[in-house]
Amino acid sequence: MYGINGSDFPPVTEDTFCKYVLYYEINNSRVRIWDLIILIPNALFVLFLVVRFNKAQLKLRATSSPIFLTFYSLVWGNVIISLIRCGVSMTVNASMPFGGLVDKILWVTVRFFLLATEMSVVIFGLAFGHMDSRSSIRYVLLATSFISLAFTITQGTLEIVMPDDIFHIDTRDYDLFGHGGMLFWFTSSLVFAIIYFIILLLPWIPLREYLALPTKLSFYLYILLLALLDTTQAVGAGLLAWGSMQSGLCVVDVTTWLYFSLYTPLVYHTFLSEFFSVSQPSIMFSYKAQMDEPMEDDQVSLPHQQSFSSLKTDSDYIYQSNSVYDSTLFEAGGTTPMNPVYSASLQSPDSIVSGQSIETGPPPAFHTQHIPST
Asked: Which of 288, 129, 136 is nearest to 210 (CA)?
């Protein structure tokens, strides 16, 4: 048996392009092509985040919802650890035992951050979308961190203890990072693909009547892309383990580059770009109207809270009654909870010239209403 971790076929020959690109160094400088093509899109994305940092900071201060700060922090964490991995991999000698170990640990660390983010997005959308509180966010992040940690420890152990011979470089006598081996890679990718396809089917089955499912299309497009990526990756890993060597390696090369280079920008584009681009962005997902639930002490964005806005003109004070409406954490048509002082500061000059004072409380019309006593 050639492949220690799930393969019955001999290793891929050294002259295949899809393997050669994984370890080829530019002018023997330790800068591998594989690390470089992952570094470039991550570096460009960091530059994009830096250019828009001041605007993002103002937006985050203007909203009372912690969910946007959570996603923004996850995006920064993912891209920074990816840059660190690429930079360190370009400076250490992976053909030496210590350098190869450091390289694999960094790969597993990046996978930990990306997987934790991947699961957090799904859990926020499906289970905790209506609970925009700091405590619920902490619970979700803690749970996904533990699951991701268990996954990456398993992957790292297999990678170090049982390296797959498919990724062994005979001419330099060292092993490339093999993602835990083909059997582990195939199994995990298949499991994630099945989970994502089940999520896509939820709006079409009777169970939807009992769930507060997101209705915004961007969430399901995000799930669909991950489902297709994991399915393709499972096919590639399966081909490497039990089928055509060269074609399978080319498939997993493409899926690996897509995941480690473009996943973080996908999260930003799907869940944060609209928030940072408009004055009052729509919230990430939308849900069916739910019955009132007990409020937590640290609840900062409630499903049925009243809202006041003064963002357009001097006549745009809008009071929403305390009726049940389908505005929750991730809403397609709602607005993001915003600091009232910040909202008032965005009044048009006409409203100030006309003598209207900046109010942070309810509009005058509200005080003139006569509410019958009970």
From this structure: 288
Task: Look up residue 176 and give its DSSP letter.
Answer: -
Q: How far apart are CA 172 and CA 96, in angstroms?
A: 9
The residues of the chain scoring below 70 in pLDDT are 1-15, 127-132, 244-245, 278-374
Core vs surface per residue 144-159: b (16+ CB within 10 A) or e: bbeebeebbeebbebb
Confidence (pLDDT) at 131: 57
CB 212 within 8 A of CB 174: no
Helices (H), 207-244: 217-242
Question: pLDDT by residue (tens digit) across 304-327?
Answer: 333 333 344 434 433 343 333 333
Taking the model in full, what pTM does it have? Answer: 0.72
Structure tokens at 165: 């011979």
95-112 confidence digits (pLDDT tens): 788 888 899 999 999 999
Tokens representing residue 145 in the block: 């961190």
pLDDT score, position 338: 53
Q: Copy the structure tokens of residue 239.
A: 């081909």
Predicted confidence at residue 38, as pLDDT, reads 96
Cβ count within 10 A of residue 301? 20
Q: Is the alpha carbon torsion for 45, 47, 50, 52 positive or negative?
A: negative
Longest Cα–Cα distance of the chain, Å, equals 88
Q: Tokens at residue 171, please? A: 């001419």
- The residue type found at 102 is V
Map residue 129 onto helix, strand or coil.
Answer: coil
DSSP 274-333: HHHHSSSPPPS---------PPPTTEEE-TT------SS-TT------SS--S--SS-SS
The residues, any chain, with a CB within 8 Å of residue 330's CB and separated by 6 or more, are 124, 125, 129, 214, 216, 219, 283, 284, 285, 286, 287
